[in-house]
Amino acid sequence: MQTTDVLIIGAGAAGLMCAATAGYRGKSVTVVDMGKKPGRKILISGGGRCNFTNENASPDNYLCQNPHFIKSAMSRYSAQDFIELVERHGVNYHHKTLGQLFCDNSAQDIVDLLMTECEWAGVTVALRNEVLDVAKNDNGFIVSTTEHQYQCQSLVVASGGLTMPKLGATPIGYKIAEQFAIDVLPTTAALVPFTLHQHDKERFDGLSGISIPTIVSSEDGTQFKENILFTHRGLSGPAILQISSFWRAGQAVTINLLPDNSIAQHITQWRETHPKKSLKNQLATLLPKSFVDAMISQQEITDKNINQLSHLDIEQLAAYLHQWQIKPNGTEGYRTAEVTLGGINTDELSSKTFESKKVANLYFIGEVIDVTGWLGGYNFQACWAQGVACGQAVN
């Protein structure tokens, strides 16, 4: 049997950050992960460039049954703290418009940073090492894996959610929680594309790859101003991924296809400048032509010359373009989702240390808990903050 002060299940963002933090405190730390590589989700994130944080990250950017839970950790480890770590390791990065930060080179740079920190902190990372069983004893926990049996004083579950099963996602974290009678909230795929009903798929056939800047709103009033993307299965793009976290089965989403323009104002202007031009041709100056063609061919929009449009025509057109409603069939599920919504109920954990309130020296961090960030580096920032908070607390 191998003995370690701290055993961490999961070599992802939260687990590795926690490991290095605890290691620097002089704790002996072992990280076990069933994968061949550490940080597998980090490597594919941000199109392979890892959107590693967001300069605007605040507790308001997270969904959690207890909205105050994440405040403590995030106040103690900010986006700027992680940016400084990135700069110390000489990782080149760039900013995008909404506060997102990406590696210039590759997401591998962030994995290398974390593994280097772990090495400097004396952490052992044991890959291809699947957890089979967890038991509590007088000295802490005995964790049995495919390779070893470990005795640890503190056990940190950073095993991730259910997203991207091809990367090895398993429900082990939830099973450990249930074993110790810790409440687990229902989980669902989030930051995920929508699928459409067959009749809508047929309507949008041929539009795959078309992107439109929009404002997308959910039934609870949440809205995001970003692009939508038509796919051969349905709708994707940043605005759709964002709103998917707030959408529930059976609900519609409302899409403003002209968020920066009033179609009524445009028509008033066109009446003076292009009165005899067709609405179809004029709309194609504001929206992708193939989208306009599709809407007109399905008689969603009436094509007339600009000077022939009645007040009712204009009202109906404005309602359509500014409040276009679509009812998704569902989502693409965990296969393509970026995160898992729900998980370990945060009421069961200390917001300062992430320790279970029921079981001493048992901690849960990362995607396995009920803290889900917006798209744009927010989930990574939550992982860094939770990893540091927990790493500073473990015995």
Protein model, in words:
- By secondary structure, the protein is of the alpha+beta class.
- The chain has two domains: 2-188 and 340-391, FAD/NAD(P)-binding domain; 193-331, Beta Barrel (Elongation Factor Tu (Ef-tu), domain 3).
- The protein contains 13 helices and 21 strands.
- Strands 1, 2, 7, 8, 9, 10 and 20 form a seven-stranded mixed sheet that branches. It has a seven-stranded antiparallel sheet with strand order 17-16-13-14-15-12-18. Strands 3-6-5 form a three-stranded antiparallel sheet.
- α1 (13-24) runs parallel beside α5.
- It starts with a strand and ends with a helix.
Q: What characteristics describe this protein?
A:
FAD/NAD(P)-binding domain; 25% strand; alpha+beta; seven-stranded antiparallel beta sheet; Elongation Factor Tu (Ef-tu), domain 3
Topology:
Blueprint: E1 2-9, H1 13-24, E2 29-32, H2 40-44, E3 51-54, E4 62-63, H3 71-76, H4 79-88, E5 93-95, E6 100-103, H5 108-120, E7 124-126, E8 131-137, E9 140-145, E10 149-157, H6 172-179, E11 184-190, E12 194-195, H7 198-203, E13 211-217, E14 223-230, E15 234-236, H8 238-244, E16 253-256, H9 263-273, H10 279-283, H11 289-297, H12 311-322, E17 324-326, E18 330-331, E19 339-344, E20 362-364, E21 372-373, H13 378-391
Parallel strand pairs: 1-2, 1-10, 2-7, 10-20
Antiparallel strand pairs: 3-6, 4-21, 5-6, 8-9, 9-10, 11-19, 12-15, 12-18, 13-14, 13-16, 14-15, 16-17
Helix pairs in contact: 1-5, 1-13
